[in-house]
Write a structure and sequence with these properties.
Length: 145
């Protein structure tokens, strides 16, 4: 049974290992540490092992922005990313949730669409060389009403 929870200090190495393929080995550890320090790092754990993580910030134009979501390959397509997003939606004080992905990441684009996000724009000229697509989702109810 997968459990979504706030990350703890001991989760940082596993989150960094997951993030490594997306943001590179030199950036992954400091990135995970900074998200933990801000208390804006969620993990999905399965039998005590971290199988997914989501980092976010609440200071992006006074909106919540998911800066990273990654799930271990063997655990993908099992609803874990969906549950991580649900958890950040519950945490968000803003009714506006944003996320992004590279334009070449078809699986992430489909996932964002399935989660109710709509296209919001794009950013060019980033270091990785790909256009970054921005997604937006309006949150209703709960803390956002």
């Amino acid at each position: 049974m997968v459990k979504i929870r706030s990350a703890q200090f001991d989760d940082v190495p596993a989150c960094a290992a997951l993030a490594d393929e997306l943001i590179g080995p030199r950036r992954a550890q400091p990135f995970a540490e900074a998200a933990l320090e801000r208390r804006q790092l969620l993990v999905a754990s399965d039998d005590g092992s971290v199988v997914g993580c989501l980092a976010y910030t609440t200071h992006w134009f006074n909106c919540t922005f998911v800066s990273l979501v990654v799930v271990e390959p063997d655990h993908r397509r099992k609803g874990i990313a969906r549950e991580l997003y649900r958890a950040v939606e519950a945490e968000s004080a803003s009714p506006r949730l944003f996320s992004s992905t590279e334009e070449t990441n078809a699986a992430s684009i489909r996932m964002h669409s399935a989660l109710g996000f709509t296209a919001s724009g794009y950013v060019d000229n980033l270091p990785q060389g790909c256009r970054e697509l921005l997604f937006y989702k309006r949150l209703d109810g709960g803390r956002h009403a």
